[in-house]
Amino acid sequence: MNNEFLFTNNPSPIWIYDRETLKFLNVNEAAISKYGYSKVQFLQMQITDLYHVEHLPALLENLSNYQYNLNFHHQCRHCCQNGKYIDVETVTHAIEYEHKNSHLVYIQDITERKAIEGNLLASEAMFRAVAERIPAPLMISRLSDGLILNANQEFFKAFRCESVDIINCPVTDIYHDINESQNLLTELEKQGSLHNYEIMLKRADGSTFWAIASLQHLIFNGESAILSVLSDITEHKNTETHLKEQNEFLQSIFERIPLMIALINPAGQLEWVNQEWEKIIGWKLEDFPSCDLLTSIYPNAEDRQYVMNFVQSADQTWDDFKTKVRDGRIVDTSWTNIRLPNNQIMGIGQDITYRKQTERALKTQLEREQLMRTVVQRIHQSLNLQDILDATVQEVRHLLQVERVIVYQFAPDMSGKVVAESVESGWTVSLGVQIEDTCFQTGRGVDYHQGRKRAIADIYQAGLTNCHIHLLEQFEVKANLVVPILLELGGENIGSRLWGLLVAHQCSSPREWEENQLDLLDQLSVTIAIAIQKSSIFQQAQTELVERQKAEKQLRSALAEKEILLKEVHHRVKNNLQIVSSLLQLQSQTLKDPEVIRVFQDSQNRIDSISLIHKNLYTSPNIGELDVVDYIQTLATSILISYQIGLERIDLKTNIAAVSLNVDQAIACGLIINELISNCLKHAFPNEEKGSITITLQNINNHIEMSIQDNGVGIPNDLDWNNSSSLGLSLVYDLVTEQLEGSMTLERHHGTKFTIKFPQFILQ
Q1: Which residues, including other chains, have CB under 8 Å from residue 307's CB and lie 6 or more apart?
Q2: Would you tell me how many other CB atoms lie within 10 Å of the CB of residue 357?
Q3: pTM exceeds 0.85
Q4: What pLDDT is stored for residue 763 in this prediction?
Q5: Of 117, 53, 110, which Cα lies nearest the Cα of 86?
Q6: How far apart are alpha carbons 133 and 720 in whole angstroms?
Q7: DSSP 667-684
Q8: Would you kindly state where each structural domain of the chain is located, as residue ranges?
Q9: 222: left (phi over 0), alpha (psi -120 to 50) or beta
Q10: Among 725, 709, 707, 735, which residue's Cα sits nearest to residue 610?
Q11: pLDDT score recorded for residue 254
Q12: Which keywords, in A-to-Z order, does the entry hold (predicted)?
């Protein structure tokens, strides 16, 4: 009774059919409802009437294989009474029913599930097609075991692998850090999906890259899976790392750079300062909420407003400010401002206190140098001492901004007077005023003799004597600078003499003097002392100049007389030599023997060569200076004429440098040229042959080289010219070795060439 009740009221369709005839024996209400047949109709049908023709072979095969102990699952399609087919899953059990071998079949309608699976398969196919077209690496992994089920070509390209290298491999293989895989699953479980999760992945070749991963759950081939879409961000990550390193580097620079740096927001509030700012200003960023920063470092309201306007302008120009630091000091700072893209303002500053001090010192130094140049220039322009002193006191008063500057000169008895003064209008003039001063005459002021200089800020507080104060009061002096003017003693006296004082007067009020101001007067006192000494020297020089001019006039007169005398001597020597030459010529005209005539002619030529030197000397504009070029050319030409040989037959060439020869060297060279040219004319060109003679004279280092060369027949090879019996060659050899202290060489190629080399003597 209970089994019947359960069979009839079971919500799932149930059949019982005869295993032999396949005819229905019974169906429950759920089967009648599902298939649309009445119970009477079912009992008249076989189970094969419900099966789709394509599933009948499988049914019959199952029935044949599992006749006994039948218990199997089977999916197929059944036809309903309205002609529609439904997808079912059957579970068949072997039973005995009404004494017949029967099958009890439980039926589950899986039409909807099949439709879903079909849709899933279609979706999977579409997914694969779409995945291949997505320009990003895409992967599907099974949720249960983490195996990679599918991936697109972009994935293979990104991981530098093939499908066989990655499909069905653990998804952990692609993670650089395996633990990161578990972290991803944990986050995915918490959030349901993940987007833009940065992770480092590993390629097949072992290299790594950064990627953004987006993960979500899906059903793939009927299994729970995870879809991962990746995007390679290695370049972005490298850029990000580089920017981070740059930012850290820049921040490190900002912290260490020897410049003050401050960030100011658009509202004008200070947001960040570097260590240099804190070091110089003395404040720290955490101090600012408890105090008004600008009021602290710029107490003056007008200065503070100027600073605020300068910051807001951010025009990237530099400006200088007086800044009060925490310890109360005032420092010089220089700032510029840059407006950043986020509208913040970055201020860049530096402590320029030392630079400002240096600039002021340089300005003072330049003013001092300019004053010194002015005084020195005045000394160069005029050695008039009064002009120099007047210019000096004028320049010093303007430079020191005092009411009076004077130069006070001592007399031998130590009385004195003002010899130069520059005084501002309205104050008492001391120049030309009789000054009654007994202080120095009574021995006071001995320190000035020793070079002492004084800077008195207040004459009533300096411990001055009453006579000194009384003297200063006459000229309304409240403070002064005093430096001595000392003249160096020359000769046997060693030391200096006090000539006077250079004094600057502050008359309007006491004054604290700077050390460089006293040094300036000290330097000027030295310059004035030099000017005084130069002026004295100039006066002495003028006296000496007059005497020297007289002596020079007498010397010129004596020199003119000597020059006339020397010219007369050279003229008379030349005349005497010409008389001897004329006597030889007259005597030769009475001779018949050609050899004797030749000897007379040679002697005449020798005398003429010496005579020509004296003629050159007394006709020269400068007495004692020989024109070597003119002398040699004239000598050579006169020799040709004496032998009655024209230039059309013998080509005379000269290359004579303007060397310096004394009279002895010139006579020796003239005689040598005479002898060698005479030999050429006698022996080098027989039968009146044509040829050339070349004479050269030049400086070579500290020697003079002279050569006489011809292109004639040449000297015979068996002639020993060093031991020749010829008077001419013997004379040449003696002149070279004895007179000129030189040497001579002979070349016999293509004629004859004598080369004489001798030292050059400097005329004293």
Answers
A1: 294, 298, 321
A2: 11
A3: no
A4: 46
A5: 110
A6: 116
A7: HHHHHHHHHHHHHIIIII
A8: 14-115, 134-238, 257-358, 382-543, 622-759
A9: left
A10: 735
A11: 72
A12: Coiled coil, Kinase, Transferase
String of b and e for 661-694 (b: at least 16 CB within 10 Å)?
beeebbbbbbbbbbbbbbbbbeebbeeeeebebb
Token representation of residue 198: 């940065």
Distance CA 652, CA 650 (A): 6
Joined together, the tokens standing for residue 522 give 């000290």
- Tell me if 607 sits within 8 A of 580, measured CB to CB: yes
Grouping H, G, I as helix, E, B as strand and the rest as coil, residue 293 is helix
Instruction: In whole angstroms, give the CA distance from residue 18 to residue 26.
Output: 10
Instruction: State pLDDT tens for residues 463-482.
Output: 888 888 888 888 899 999 99
Cα within 13 Å of Cα(76), Cβ side: 23
- For 134-238, CATH gives 3.30.450.20
Residue 270 three-state SS: strand
- Which fold would CATH assign to domain 382-543? Beta-Lactamase (3.30.450)
Q: In whole angstroms, what is the distance from residue 456 CA to residue 501 CA?
A: 15
Cα(245)–Cα(238) distance, rounded to whole angstroms?
Answer: 10
Q: Which stretch, 197-201, 295-299, 523-527, has highest mean pLDDT? A: 197-201
Pair 72, 93: CB distance under 8 Å: no
**Domains 14-115 and 257-358 in one fold:** yes
646 token code pair: 């024209």
pLDDT at 84 over 70: yes
Say how many C-beta atoms besides its own lie within 10 A of residue 304's C-beta: 15
Q: Are strands 223-232 and 208-220 parallel, antiparallel or unpaired?
A: antiparallel
Structure tokens at 740: 């000129």
Distance CA 330, CA 468 (A): 41
For residues 703 and 101, what is the distance between their CA atoms, to the nearest angstrom? 154
E-only strand ranges, 280-403:
319-324, 330-339, 345-351
Cα–Cα distance between 398 and 520 in angstroms, integer? Answer: 13
Contact 213, 185 (CB under 8 A): no
pLDDT in tens, 624-667: 566 778 878 887 887 777 777 777 888 888 898 888 887 778 77
Query: φ and ψ at 457, to 5 degrees?
Result: -80, -30
N-terminal to C-terminal alpha carbon distance within the chain: 168
Which superfamily, per CATH, for 14-115? PAS domain (3.30.450.20)
Helix (H) or strand (E) holding 102: strand 100-109
H-type helices in 475-591, by residue range? 515-588
Residue type at 384 in one-letter notation:
N
pLDDT on residue 550? 83
- CATH 3.30.450.20 fits domain 257-358: yes
CATH architecture for segment(s) 622-759: 2-Layer Sandwich (3.30)
Residue in 669, 601, 604, 602 with CA at minimum distance from that of residue 631: 669
Q: What is the enclosing helix (H) or strand (E) of 446?
A: helix 446-449
Write the CB contacts of 611 (distance below 8 Å, at least 6 apart in sequence). 573, 574, 577, 578, 581
Which positions ≥6 away from 497 have C-beta within 8 Å?
486, 487, 489
> What string of DSSP letters covers 705-725?
EEEEEE-SS---TT--GGG-S
Nearest alpha carbon to residue 628 among 722, 698, 684, 726: 698
